[in-house]
Amino acid sequence: MRYEPVKELLNRTFRKPLMRRLFYSLLDLLLLRAWHIKRALKKIAERLPANANVLDAGSGLGQYVWRMARKNRGWKITGIDINREQIADSTEFFDKMGLSGRVAFRVADLRDFTEADNYDFILSVDVMEHILEDEKVFRNFYDSMRSNGLLMISAPSDMGGSDLHDNESFIEEHVRGGYSKPEITEKLGKAGFSDIEVKYTYGRPGKISWYLSMKVPLVLLGVTKLAYIVLPFYYIVVLPFCFILNGLDLWIDHEAGTGLLVLARKKV
Q: What domains are there in the chain, each with its CATH number?
């Protein structure tokens, strides 16, 4: 299925400020990825300056910019994305929330984006699996970071992260089946990064949770708009189980998983 039309539909549905805030809260609850990112961001914040300059590379619907802006009030955050509609809607929402002084959004292609020695921290969530020229993007990240800057990437692993069947991904926009630990470590090292840490997410508990909380609803949304009526009742039943599974996935040190959480440093 194609993920972008679903994202665009959600973007239009939750455009008004109150609905947007509710939407971000729902994403934080539903997405296991958000659970992992939230915990990692808390640890990373302790390693960054209070006035850090931050880039959300592939900001999408803006949920991670919203979290970082609320939890780290000294950070100056830029969100970039290739989708003009999402950038326009994010800009409008954050302006209405009074955050335009320290949050900005811009349309940009990560394959061409560089701002030399500008960022203390770059976050990229569910982006690199959509970009064929990933090594070029990694070099752009490196060039755009300040000395001792940190990079965090969340991406599917090659252990089923893109839900491949007959060499086709469940998400049609994916250009690769996922990264192995050695592959992404090697590519980041070639770009200049050091202190590269790669851990698995979406182990057995997370994989079940993803299927129940994300795959089934996305398939339904891709088939019929009536899913908007059915899904609230569906979630009432499955969410308690998903929360338990998410908690287990968050605290277990997985030997394998369908997701990767990567941290690297520009050491100069």
A: 3-203+253-265 (3.40.50.150)
